[in-house]
Amino acid sequence: MRKFLLLFFINALFLSSCDLFEQEVDLVKEPIDISTYISTSPLQLDAAVNYQYAAAVPYGTNEKNKFDIYLADATAPTPLVIWIHGGGFVTGDRSLSPQNFGGQDPTDIVTAFLSQGISFASISYRLLDAQNETEGVIKSLNDSKRALQYLKLYAEEFNIDPDRIGIFGASAGAGTALYLGLSDDLAISTSQTDDIVLTQSTSVKAIGALETQATYDIPKWDQLVFKPLADHGLKLDSKSLPNAVLGPEGDLPLSVGLLSAVPSIAATINSFYGISSVSDLYSNETSAYRKQVEILSLMDANDPPIYLQNSIWNLEPDESMYDLNNPESIGALFNFVFHHAYQAKALHDRAEEVGLKHVSIIPELGIEDENTKDFVTFFIGELKEAI
Question: What positions does the domain BD-FAE-like occupy (predicted)?
Fold first, then answer.
């Protein structure tokens, strides 16, 4: 009996200590003085629009962890749109240019949002080192996640409604927006971190993806992109590619073979997963990593509505793209594969399958929405509707 009681008390003590260890704690929110970041806008906005502009606001400790924000003039908290730049995760920053918005003038875009009482932020994040990367794309994704969480934590200071935030981007920024917006809430409890920023919700009201990729599990592009491209006369096959690395089955998916055949692109793919060789794509560790950044499987009917726009000018590769010794051909090939209409169509098809509200603008495939032609209209509708 004594032995039983002793075991009982030891067990009770152990359980109580576990409860104590998991106990939520109060974390301190550091004060922020927004006035120290108020600056002159680099964009010449419409004089009739009232706003404040804050530049290079730090949301983390790295020099890349900064955002710029245009604050709509309002007494009540405003919706917010967050822009995430592209550049393949190896280049780019938060500065706004027509190239970032498919040729549209960023001045017009920011003005359109502000005139509707919607604030606008643009973020920078850590880029990948194409030669010596060890963390991979999760590093960049986590930075964007932190920026979103930081803006929610300081929503009152920026006069933002944390429940009416939309995120969008182009290329790498588009994939980031999809990853964050389609993931279940990525906040962690105070029992797991002493960083109050990371305890904030990552839920958003709307997602926009311009010239996007369907998933960051690149070998899946064979079925999503290259299989339908073969029906349009794609002449490449992985066995004929120079410098292609063989996979576990004696051949490599065309998507990976094509990318590994171009050294500069292969280096980018390696940095994407933090590996040293394309042949490491099939290791257990990298396979788990690829699964972690697989976007399509994140999507379900309960996710926020999405806007998709891939407007690649042709379905079939131009003959000049096959010259892998020509830098211009390599650039064209990179854009062709990474931003192809079939990338957006895979997301469109998945949204149709799960019943998620979406607007798809993929003109080369005859997929367009007659009611919502542009992402500004989409976001204004979704964020104003959420009032």
Answer: 68-207
